[in-house]
Write a structure and sequence with these properties.
- This protein is an alpha+beta fold and 448 residues long.
- The chain has 16 helices and 16 strands.
- The chain binds adenosine monophosphate.
- The site of adenosine monophosphate (AMP) has 18 residues, from strand 6, strand 10, strand 11 and helix 11.
Length: 448
């Protein structure tokens, strides 16, 4: 029965059997963001190409090689967003959020598009959770952003993780650093790939994130930007470290981090997996971008942010065996025999669903036996059979599928009877639970 049109390479379907995992990590991200005062913003999936050229930067891999860019029917150049910050800054400016109390703190869950070579943890359509803090120049803002990301990973249960930080200075430091890089790469010019050769004059720092093995081998011996930063930038970096210490967040300084996008200034950081199976996988990263708001037409205003990939997080969780909450269950299947029973089932199911229970009724005209089988397959917690006898006597037997116990319930007060049985089962499960075996996820769920 399978169709012959397949999903596009580098994209991924999320099926109902998996989607509850994404819902869990997304909700946890929004909850963590809320605790730090970040509120959700939604922006369009496509923007004018110019927005990314000017923010991400014309000499970056993302803009030069990876963007999904096309002309629309009005012959305007449009790009599917490769990341979330540029759109968030555009919206911040377009809606005058700079007139609201500052800093403005926003978060988002978005799909992103990059034409990269698909592999584990690298997709062409992927999803990011991101946060942006507009209008805060103090390193406390950087520390809070790192703390938010860190507490999110803790909450989810990712323990083997390194927080790597660096400073890439301001445009003034960058000038000196670019000169040093130019001198270094000039000597090995003949070995560089064509793209990097074109970057040598325009933006030598971008050579550092070239994925070609030869260029990255050359780049590994290049001067590091931390040696070129000015006193103000150094002071900012030292204060960030003090605040991270105060927050009890362990970090390592990694002078090699430059991040692949042009808009970063001063602080850059990454969360890197230390788990055996996913060692080196960058789960998220971010930094400060003090010049971007002005670059996009606003007033000079500092800002910083963080983004992480949801697919990579799922990989890290699965590889480390971090449990997810249970998949949502069907609380009750109403098995019916005959038209009158079906009418009753419609009434009862509407009632219970409005009270928050998940209820299944037969919508394909199956026999009682087949309905029972289906109820079993979808793991219904309870079943009840309604036929002519039950309708005549006004009572039905509610069966708990865990232990097979049956309770007589009046059809006139079915919701009360069901609730009682449901609660009794919950209490029995609680009494027999082994709390010493609670996982972090169980505890998270109890606390929610
Ligand atoms: P970036 O915007 O490049 O700093 O990426 C931020 C995060 O998004 C990364 O740490 C990854 O978790 C995720 N990410 C970036 N590119 C991809 C991709 N092609 N596929 C899956 N996740 C990605």
């Amino acid at each position: 029965m399978a169709g012959n049109i397949k999903a596009i390479k580098g994209t991924k379907d999320t099926l109902p059997s998996e989607s509850y995992k994404l819902q869990y990590i997304e909700q946890a991200a929004l909850d963590t963001a809320k605790a730090y005062g970040f509120h959700e913003m939604r922006t369009p999936v496509f923007e004018y190409t110019e927005l990314f050229d000017r923010s991400v930067g014309e000499t970056t891999d993302v803009v030069q090689k990876e963007m999904y860019t096309f002309n629309d029917k009005g012959d305007r150049s449009i790009t599917l967003r490769p990341e979330g910050t540029a759109g968030a800054v555009r919206a911040f400016l377009e809606h005058g959020l700079f007139n609201e109390p500052l800093p403005q703190k926003v978060c988002y869950l978005t799909s992103c598009y990059r034409y990269e070579k698909p592999q584990a943890g690298r997709l062409r359509e992927f999803h990011q959770f991101g946060i942006e803090c507009f209008g805060a120049g103090s390193p406390v803002a950087d520390a809070e952003i790192i703390a938010l990301a860190n507490s999110y990973f803790n909450f989810i249960g990712i323990e083997k993780l390194a927080v790597e930080i660096n400073s890439i200075g301001c445009p003034e430091c960058r000038k000196k650093y670019s000169e040093a890089l130019k001198a270094y790469f000039e000597d090995r010019k003949s070995e560089l790939c064509e793209t990097c050769l074109s970057r040598l004059d325009r933006n030598p720092m971008r050579i550092l994130d070239c994925k070609s093995p030869v260029c990255s081998e050359i780049a590994s011996g290049a001067p590091v930007v931390l040696d070129y930063i000015c006193d103000d930038c150094r002071d900012h970096f030292e204060k960030l470290k003090t605040y991270l210490d105060a927050l009890n967040i362990s970090y390592v300084v990694n002078p090699q981090i430059v991040r692949g996008l042009d808009y970063y200034t001063r602080t850059v950081f990454e969360f890197v997996s230390l788990d055996e199976k996913t060692k080196g996988l960058v789960l998220g990263g971010g930094g400060r971008y003090d010049g971007l708001i002005e670059e996009l037409g606003g007033a000079a205003m500092p800002a910083c942010g963080f983004a992480m990939g949801l697919e990579r997080l799922l990989i890290a969780m699965e590889e480390s065996g971090i449990p997810f909450p249970e998949a949502p269950k069907c609380n009750l299947s109403i098995v019916t025999a005959g038209e009158n029973a079906l009418l009753k089932a419609l009434e009862l199911s509407a009632d219970l669903r409005s009270q928050g229970y998940s209820v299944n009724i037969d919508t394909v005209g199956r026999s009682i036996k087949a309905q029972m089988k289906f109820a079993n397959k979808i793991n219904s917690e309870f079943t009840v059979v309604i036929g002519d006898n039950e309708l005549e006597n006004g009572v039905a037997m509610l069966k708990c599928m865990d232990d097979g116990t049956q309770t007589e319930v009046s059809l006139d007060a079915f919701d009360e009877g069901f609730e009682r049985a449901y609660m009794n089962r919950a209490v029995a499960n609680f009494d027999s639970a082994d709390f010493s075996a609670l996982t972090q996820v169980d505890i998270n769920n109890l606390l929610r």
